[in-house]
Design a protein that fits this description.
The complex is a heterodimer of chains A (776) and B (294). Chain A is of the alpha/beta class. Chain B has one domain (16-279): ABC transporter involved in vitamin B12 uptake, BtuC (Orthogonal Bundle), CATH 1.10.3470. The longest helix of chain B has 32 residues, at 3-34.
Chain lengths: 776, 294
C-alpha cells in the first residue's frame, strides 16, 4: 500500500476522530445519575419531589417529541394522543378489568406504538405543516373519543382512583417512591436513546431531516426510518402516559388537550432540540418555572407565554444548545483579539489567494497519490469491500455496468430528455456534457431513480432498475453527488461521510442503543471507511468540523467523499468542479482518476470541457434533451453538431459586443466604486478587501471563482450577512448599511443567478451576475 | 330526520363554513407573502368580536363605528405581532416560528380571559333577526351577511392580487423575496400588508359571527384550528381553495350532527380530513402535500 501521506496521517486521525474522551463522558453521565438519585435524599421537600416527578414525566414526553421532531425533523403534534393512550390503557385495565398495575404499565406503551405502526405510513408521507395538521387531528379524535365513550373512559369526569404500582411487594405510593419510579425510566430512556442517536440511527434520522432525497440516494430507506422514529416516539409517549396515570392516581381528558401537545415541544425548544439532554433540561426548567408562576394566579398564562416568546427570540438554540456559533465567535473575539486564525478562516484565505502565514501547514492539500495507488488504505482492505453485505457480485472489467435504453422524461408538455440511449462500461470514466438546460441533470435524476421516467428502461449491474426506489438502487452500488449541494448541514463532515456507509451497516435501534459488540465493530469499520474516503478527496483534516462551515468547494468534496464511502460500483458526479478554483479543479481531476483506478466506474456531468476531455474515456453530448454525439473525447471535440450547440452558429458576430466604446481613449466617469469591501457569514469571511471600478456606459464583466463571492459583490445580499463597511460610493452616495431595496432606488439593479425573474426597472447600472449571453 | 331538517343543517353549515373559509383566507394571505404559518389567526377573530363588544356595550358607540374601530385595533395587533415577535424569529426555524405564533395565541387567549372573563359574548346581527323562509327552511339574515362577506373578501383579494400595484408587489415578494427586494420592493412592508389584510379579514369574521354564536376567549383556538383545516383542505396557498375547503368542512360538520351525538362533530371533521389527506394529498385545489424538497 504505497499511499505514504495517508498512512502517516491515519493513526493520528483515528485517534482524534475516535475520541478517547469516552471516559470523561462516562464520568459525566455517572455524575448526573448520582445527582438525580441522591437529590431527594438531600433535599427532602415533598413539594420539590413532587415537582421533579412531574418534570420526569415531561422529560420522557419531551424526549418522545425530540426524537420525531428534533432528530427526524417531522413536525408532529400527535404525541399527546400517545401520552393519553398510555394513561387510559393503564387506568382502564386497572379499574375496569382489575389488571395488576405492573402488567398494565408494561402493556401501556405497546398500545400507542401499535397504533403508530398502523397509521404511520400514510401519515408520514405528509410533510411540514400537513403532517402537523394530521397529527393535531389525531389528538383531537382521541380527545373526542375519550369524552364520548363515557362508559369506558368516564367522559369529562375522568377515571380514578388508579391503584399504586407495587413490584415484589414494594409499593410506589410515597413521593420518594414515585420520584425514583419516574426517574429510573427517564435515565434509562435517555441513555439508551442518546447512544442510538449518536451512531447509525441518529445519522439516518438527521440525514432525512435535512434532505430525504440525499439520504435516499445513500441507501437510507427514509420511509422505514421515519416510521421507526414515529413508533419509538409513540412507545415513549405511551410509557410516560402510563407512568402519569400511576403517579397521579386519577386522570381526566384535560391533561391531553391541544395545549398539552404544545408544552413538550416548547420544553424541547427551550432545552435545545439538538440533543435529548436538552429536552430533559427544558422539562425540568419549565416545570419549575411554570409552577413558580402558579402563584401569580390568573396572570400565569400571560407571563408563561411572554417568556416563551422571549426565549424563542433570544435563545433559539435552547439552554443546552447555548449560543449560536456566531454569537460564540463574537464573544471569543471580544476576549482574545489576537488569536490565531482558525482552520476555517485559513481555508477561506487560501481560496481567495490571500497569504496567511500561520495557515499554510493547515490547508495544504493532501498530496495526490500515484495513479495506481489503491483507493482504500490498510484500515479498509479490499476484501472488506468485496465481502461487504449489499454489494453486488463483481463483474469482469469492460462489461456493461449501466445501460440506458430509449429513456424519455416529460415535464408537463416539455420533453426534457428525449429517447436517449447510452451505456457505461465497467471501469470507465464516462462524461455527459451539453449546454445549460440540455437535460443532463434530469437524465442523472432518472438514472438514480429520483425522477419518474416517461418511457424507456434502465439496467444497472445486470438488473432492471426501472421501477425500484433510489435507496434500493444505492444498495445495488450506485452513488451520486448533486449539482446544487445536498450536504447535511446539521452534521459534522465525518458524520456526513458516515451516512455514506449506511448501506453497509445493519445495526438497528436497540443494537445501537445498547452498544452491542456487533454494533461497535461495525461502527469501527464504518469510521475507517469514512476516513479513507475523506483522505481520497483530501479533506480528512476537516473531519470534525461542522459540514456547513466549510467553503463551497470543500462542501463539494464532502459530497464526493460521502458517495465514495458507500463504496459504489458506479459513481455519478453532477458538476463536481462547479465553484472550485483552478488548483482545486486540478486536484479533483487527480482524485477522480484515482477513484476510477480503484475500480469504481464514474459517470460525470460537467461544464468544464477541458476537465472532461482530459480524463474521460467516453463522452456523450446532450442538447435540448437529444443525444447529439457520443464517442471518444477527441472525436466529440471536432463534431460540428457539438460545436454548434456550444457556441451557436453566428458566434463571430457576438464578439463585437466586447469591443469597448471608448476607442478614442476616453475614460467614462466611474458610476460604481467598490473599495475594500469585506463581508462575512458568521465566522467565515466570504469577501476580503474587494475593489471594483465600474464606469458609465461600460460593460464590466467580473469573473470570480465562486458563486457566493460573485453574488456578494454585486448583490449585497440581504441583511443575513454582516457587513464590514468600506466606502463604496455610487454617484455621490455611500452604500454600506443600505438594504438592497435602497441601492436599487439609486439605480443599481441586479439580475440574480438562475431561477429569479429579471427586474423590470429603470437602472443605469445593471449588475449581471453572469453575462446573459452565456446562458440559454 | 325530514328533508327540511337536513336543509336547515345545510344552511347552518354554509354559515359556519363561510367563517372557516374567511379564517382560511387569513392563513393563506399571510403564508403566501411571508411563509409564516400563523397559528394565531383564530385570535384575530376572537379579538375582533370582543373589541366590538366592548366598544358597543361599554362605550355605547354605534355598531358600525364599534366594528370599524375594532377592525383597526386588530390590524394594529397583527402588525405589532409581526414586527415585534415574528420578524426576529422568521429566519431561524420553521418550528420556532410556528411555536411563536402558538405562544402568541396562548397570550391573546389569556389576556382575553383577564379582560372579558370566561363567558361568551354575543353581538347584534347586522340587519334584524327575522328569518327569511325558503320553503320550510329558515335562513337568518346574518347567514346571508356572512356568506356575502366571504364572497366579497374573496373577490377583493382577487382584485388586489391581480389588478393593483400592491398586489403585484406582494405576489413578487411571495415568489422570490430576494428578487423582489432587488427590484426595489420593501419585503418587510409587503409582509406587514399581508398581516394587516389577514387581521382585518379575521376581525370582520369575528364581528359577523358574533350574532350567530357567542364568542369567548377559547373561541380563537377552535376557529383557528377549523380555519387551518379549511386552508389545507382547499390546497394550502389557494384563496379560492380556502373558501371551498371552509364550506366543505362547515357543511360536513353540520350534517354530521344530524347523524350522531353532537360531541362527535369535531372527530368526524378530522377523520374526514385524514381521509382527504390520504387519498388526495393535494387538497381540493392546489399542489401535493407530499411534495419533495426545494
Amino acid at each position: 500500500m504505497g499511499d505514504v501521506a495517508s498512512t502517516q496521517a491515519r493513526p493520528g486521525l483515528a485517534d482524534r476522530v475516535m475520541p478517547q474522551i469516552r471516559e470523561r463522558s462516562f464520568l459525566l453521565k455517572l455524575a448526573l445519575v448520582a445527582v438525580l438519585l441522591a437529590w431527594p435524599l438531600v433535599y427532602t421537600s415533598l413539594y420539590g419531589m413532587n415537582m421533579m416527578t412531574t418534570a420526569g414525566l415531561f422529560a420522557i414526553l419531551t424526549m418522545s417529541v425530540g426524537l420525531i421532531l428534533g432528530q427526524a425533523g417531522q413536525l408532529s403534534f400527535g404525541h399527546v394522543a400517545f401520552y393519553g393512550m398510555g394513561a387510559y390503557t393503564v387506568s382502564i385495565l386497572t379499574i375496569n378489568y382489575d389488571v395488576s398495575p405492573l402488567l398494565a404499565l408494561a402493556i401501556s406503551p405497546f398500545v400507542p406504538a401499535l397504533i403508530a405502526l398502523i397509521i404511520g405510513r400514510p401519515v408520514l408521507r405528509l410533510r411540514y405543516f400537513y403532517l402537523a395538521l394530521a397529527t393535531i387531528a389525531l389528538g383531537q379524535i382521541f380527545l373526542v373519543l375519550v369524552l364520548q365513550l363515557r362508559n369506558i373512559t368516564g367522559g369529562e369526569h375522568g377515571m380514578g382512583p388508579i391503584p399504586a404500582l407495587s413490584v415484589f411487594g414494594f409499593e410506589f405510593d410515597s413521593y420518594l417512591g414515585k420520584y425514583y419510579l419516574v426517574w429510573v425510566f427517564v435515565l434509562a430512556i435517555l441513555l439508551l436513546t442518546q447512544r442510538a442517536l449518536k451512531y447509525r440511527v441518529g445519522r439516518a434520522l438527521r440525514a432525512l431531516a435535512t434532505s430525504e432525497i440525499a439520504a435516499s440516494t445513500l441507501g437510507v430507506r427514509t420511509a422505514n426510518w421515519k416510521l421507526l422514529a414515529f413508533v419509538v416516539s409513540a412507545f415513549y409517549g405511551g410509557l410516560a402516559g402510563g407512568l402519569f396515570a400511576l403517579v397521579t392516581g386519577a386522570i381526566g381528558p384535560n391533561s391531553f388537550s391541544f395545549n398539552a401537545a404544545v408544552l413538550p415541544v416548547v420544553m424541547m425548544l427551550v432545552g435545545g432540540d439538538r440533543t435529548l439532554w436538552g429536552g430533559v433540561v427544558g422539562a425540568i426548567v419549565l416545570t419549575w418555572v411554570g409552577n413558580g408562576f402558579s402563584s401569580l394566579q390568573q396572570y400565569s398564562g400571560v407571563v408563561f407565554s411572554i417568556i416563551m416568546v422571549l426565549l424563542l427570540i433570544f435563545l433559539p438554540a435552547g439552554i443546552a444548545g447555548g449560543l449560536r456559533p456566531e454569537q460564540w465567535a463574537r464573544l471569543r473575539a471580544l476576549f482574545r483579539p489576537g488569536r490565531k486564525p482558525d482552520a476555517v478562516e485559513c481555508a477561506v484565505a487560501a481560496e481567495s489567494g490571500a497569504l496567511v502565514e500561520q495557515c499554510q501547514t493547515q490547508v495544504a492539500l493532501v498530496p495526490s497519490p500515484g495513479p495506481q495507488a489503491p483507493l482504500l488504505g490498510p484500515s479498509a482492505p479490499a476484501e472488506d469491500l468485496a465481502g461487504a453485505p449489499g454489494s453486488a457480485p463483481a463483474t469482469d472489467p469492460g462489461e456493461m455496468l449501466l445501460r440506458v435504453d430509449g429513456l424519455s422524461v416529460d415535464f408537463g408538455g416539455l420533453r426534457a430528455v428525449a429517447d436517449v440511449s447510452l451505456s457505461v462500461k465497467e471501469g470507465q470514466i464516462a462524461a455527459l456534457i451539453g449546454p445549460n438546460g440540455a437535460g443532463k441533470t434530469t437524465l442523472f435524476n432518472a438514472v438514480s431513480r429520483l425522477q419518474t421516467l416517461s418511457a424507456g428502461g434502465l439496467w444497472f449491474a445486470g438488473q432492471d432498475i426501472t421501477s425500484i426506489t433510489p435507496a434500493d438502487v444505492s444498495r445495488l452500488g450506485m452513488a451520486r453527488t448533486f449539482q446544487n449541494l445536498r450536504i447535511f448541514p446539521n452534521m459534522s463532515v465525518l458524520e456526513n461521510v458516515l451516512v455514506g456507509c449506511h448501506r453497509h451497516e445493519r445495526s438497528g435501534f436497540f443494537a445501537t442503543g445498547l452498544g452491542l459488540p456487533t454494533q461497535r465493530a461495525e461502527e469501527r469499520r464504518s469510521r475507517a471507511r469514512a476516513i479513507a474516503a475523506l483522505e481520497t478527496v483530501g479533506i480528512a483534516r476537516e473531519a470534525e468540523k461542522p459540514a456547513a462551515s466549510l467553503p463551497y468547494g470543500r462542501q463539494r468534496l464532502v459530497e464526493i467523499a460521502r458517495a465514495v464511502a458507500s463504496e459504489p460500483r458506479l459513481l455519478l458526479l453532477d458538476e463536481p468542479a462547479a465553484g472550485m478554483n483552478a488548483e482545486e479543479r486540478e486536484f479533483l481531476v487527480g482524485r477522480i482518476a484515482a477513484i476510477r483506478n480503484a475500480g469504481v466506474t464514474v459517470l460525470l456531468v460537467e461544464h468544464d470541457i477541458e476537465l472532461v476531455m482530459g480524463i474521460s474515456d467516453m463522452v456523450s453530448v446532450l442538447d435540448y434533451g437529444l443525444l447529439i454525439a457520443q464517442g471518444l473525447p477527441e472525436d466529440v471535440r471536432c463534431d460540428s453538431a457539438v460545436i454548434e450547440a456550444y457556441l451557436g452558429v453566428d458566434h463571430a458576430q457576438g464578439s463585437d459586443l466586447c469591443a469597448t466604446r471608448d476607442l478614442d481613449g476616453f475614460e467614462p466617469e466611474p458610476i460604481l466604486v467598490v473599495d475594500g469591501l469585506s463581508t462575512s457569514y458568521g465566522v467565515i469571511e466570504a469577501l476580503r478587501g474587494v475593489c471594483l471600478d465600474v464606469r458609465r456606459g461600460r460593460w464590466s464583466p467580473y469573473w470570480e471563482r465562486t458563486e457566493r463571492e460573485r453574488r456578494h459583490c454585486c448583490g449585497r445580499s440581504p441583511a443575513s450577512c454582516a457587513r464590514t463597511p468600506g466606502p463604496s460610493p455610487i454617484g455621490d452616495a455611500t452604500l454600506p448599511g443600505w438594504l438592497p431595496r435602497r441601492s436599487q432606488r439609486a439605480a443599481c439593479a441586479m439580475c440574480p443567478r438562475a431561477g429569479s425573474s429579471s427586474p423590470r426597472s429603470r437602472s443605469r447600472t445593471t449588475c449581471f451576475l453572469e453575462p446573459p449571453a452565456a446562458r440559454t | 330526520m325530514a328533508l327540511t331538517d337536513w336543509l336547515q343543517l345545510l344552511v347552518m353549515g354554509i354559515a359556519q363554513g363561510a367563517i372557516f373559509g374567511l379564517i382560511g383566507l387569513g392563513y393563506v394571505t399571510i403564508y403566501r407573502t411571508s411563509r409564516v404559518v400563523n397559528m394565531a389567526q383564530g385570535s384575530f377573530v376572537m379579538l375582533g368580536a370582543l373589541f366590538a363588544y366592548s366598544f358597543l356595550n361599554e362605550l355605547g358607540w354605534p355598531f358600525w363605528l364599534s366594528g370599524a374601530v375594532s377592525v383597526a385595533g386588530v390590524v394594529l395587533v397583527g402588525l405589532a405581532m409581526y414586527q415585534l415577535v415574528l420578524r426576529p424569529i422568521i429566519k431561524m426555524s420553521l418550528v420556532g416560528m410556528i411555536l411563536a405564533t402558538i405562544a402568541l395565541s396562548i397570550l391573546f387567549e389569556n389576556l382575553a380571559l383577564l379582560r372579558w372573563g370566561g363567558y361568551g359574548k354575543g353581538l347584534p346581527p347586522f340587519t334584524g333577526v327575522k328569518p327569511l323562509w325558503v320553503g320550510d327552511v329558515a335562513v337568518a339574515p346574518q347567514v346571508l351577511w356572512v356568506v356575502g362577506l366571504t364572497a366579497a373578501v374573496l373577490v377583493a383579494l382577487h382584485i388586489l392580487a391581480n389588478y393593483t400595484r400592491l398586489g403585484k408587489q406582494m405576489t413578487a415578494t411571495a415568489t422570490r423575496p430576494m428578487a423582489a427586494s432587488l427590484c426595489g420592493i420593501s419585503t418587510n412592508k409587503m409582509v406587514l400588508a399581508a398581516f394587516a389584510i389577514s387581521a382585518s379579514v379575521g376581525a370582520l369574521g369575528g364581528i359577523s359571527i358574533g350574532s350567530v354564536v357567542p364568542v369567548a376567549y377559547v373561541s380563537g383556538g377552535i376557529f383557528g384550528l377549523n380555519g387551518f383545516v379549511a386552508a389545507i383542505l382547499g390546497g394550502w396557498g389557494s384563496s379560492m381553495g380556502a373558501v371551498l375547503g371552509g364550506l366543505t368542512l362547515g357543511i360536513l360538520e353540520s350534517l354530521a350532527t344530524g347523524l350522531m351525538p353532537a360531541g362527535y362533530k369535531n372527530a368526524v371533521a378530522f377523520v374526514l380530513l385524514l381521509l382527504i389527506l390520504y387519498f388526495r394529498p393535494s387538497g381540493l385545489l392546489g399542489k401535493s402535500a407530499t411534495e419533495g424538497e426545494d
